[in-house]
Amino acid sequence: MAALEPAMEPFRLATGHDRIRQEWMAISDKLRRRWRKLTADDVLFRDGDAEYLARVLQDRYGVDRQEARLQVCEFEQAL
Description:
about 80 residues; 6 helices; about 65% helix; globular
């Protein structure tokens, strides 16, 4: 697992200014269009942020942590 940690560094940096957290309520429709398996409850969660979204993607899509974080990072950059 330690070998994966350097790959996670860009995610930590990107979420330092967590645009997803800042815009969570405003982007709920975009989230559901991008990830169709997200439920209304997932996107209406009051304290949504990049980490929360990555955890939900892991659960809904069965992807590993690194893939979920990569998807979230790409989404955040496109905002």
